[in-house]
Amino acid sequence: MNSDTWTYLIAAGIPAALLVAASTVLVRRRREDRDDTPSTGGTDVLTAPEQEASSSAPPVSPSVGTAPDLLAPGAGEPGLAVPEDVAEADLDVQLDVPAPVAGRFTRLRGRLARSGSPLGARLLAVLSRDHLTEDDWDELEETLLLADVGAGPTGDLIEALRTRVRVEGLREPGAVRAVLREQLVALVDPTLDRSLNLAPGADAAGAPTPAVVLVVGVNGTGKTTTVGKLARVLVAEDRSVVLGAADTFRAAAADQLETWGSRVGVPTVRSDRDGADPAAVAFDAVRTGKASGVDVVLVDTAGRLQNKAGLMDELGKITRVITREAPLAEVLLVLDATTGQNGLNQARVFGEVAGVTGIVLTKLDGTAKGGIVVAVQRELGVPVKLVGLGEGPDDLAPFDAETFVDGLLEG
């Protein structure tokens, strides 16, 4: 009430105490009414980007509305953005902060050294003998083959070592180790481009698109977990991400992927029913990524056996459907390092069907078969780009040839 109203009511004989009580009730009711009214800067803001995307993209998981990239100014209609201080405060409480990517492989090298891998130790032990006989060279060859280096690369390495030992007369352990390291690094090939291609693309109409990364592999390789860990790698590099749960046959796959994404504020596009068309989900994920302007769309696919023609044909369909909306930036094949030569057979078939551009090796720290790195690169002609070296959420690291060899030789 203004001052004139107060003056009039007091002059009319109404007690001042009664007026104060009435004023307090009125103010309280106004506050309650204001609290019950939807705020243009609060709850509505969280749903506005979803409404904006729904006009050009299919329905997605409710988690899309809470992604940090979709809360940013410009994600929805002009002016509909959560205030920076409020959004960041909420995210700081709810979200994990992934470990920095730089130096991950170096920090994890010790796990490879402690994994019991006998490759480096056995090679050094044989090469340090006073006089190398044919039996010694046979032992070296057997050691390399057992480590899944492969027949071709093993022959190349043995020939190079024979030449160096004979010409240089190597006997001193330090010199032997240096030569072995040099030859192993050359075999792993540090010249290969192991960076992920995450440059934005363009659709047929020339409109910008996110970098689309398709992740494939057989059952049991840790594919969905790898997608979740890769999302953390990208978030650690300040990239915005959308996940596509195109593994619609395994009931828990979408839930698992959504849990990984929610920990770092990454939304997941998924079907509302099991057994849905995985190509449709992948398409929806890419379209949602385009609508929200994210940097990368990661698409998880169902595990499939390389000898099942129907499943592999379906993978080809997923690839074709995605490329109608945006070009594929990467096709990553997830391989279990413990599978050895069977992993090579998988790599060969997936390479033919999906056009694999890079390998992700999981469980590398728990195997004596580190030579699979060399063999699979020779088989596919594409590099190992990422490796899993543990069970932690940030135990996925960019592969580095020299660091890997040093880990083998320290074992």
Main sheet: strands, sense, barrel: 8 strands, mixed
CATH hierarchy class name of the largest domain? Alpha Beta
Cα distance, first to last residue?
82 Å
Choose one word for the global shape.
elongated
* Overall number of strands: 10
Mean pLDDT: 75
Q: How many separate domains?
A: 3
Strand order of the largest sheet: 5-4-6-3-7-8-9-10
How much strand? 5-15%
CATH architecture term of the largest domain: 3-Layer(aba) Sandwich
Low-confidence stretches: 6-12, 15-93
Report the CATH topology name of the largest domain: Rossmann fold
Order of SSEs, N→C? HHHHHHHHHHEEEHEHEHEHEHEHEEH
Question: How many helices does DSSP assign?
Answer: 17
Helix content: 40-55%
Query: How much is the radius of gyration in Å?
Result: 29 Å
User: Going by CATH, what is the homologous superfamily of the largest domain?
Assistant: P-loop containing nucleotide triphosphate hydrolases
Give the structural class. Answer: alpha/beta
Subcellular location: Cell membrane; Cytoplasm
Function: Involved in targeting and insertion of nascent membrane proteins into the cytoplasmic membrane. Acts as a receptor for the complex formed by the signal recognition particle (SRP) and the ribosome-nascent chain (RNC).
Biased composition (Low complexity): 47-68
Domain SRP54-type proteins GTP-binding: 383-396
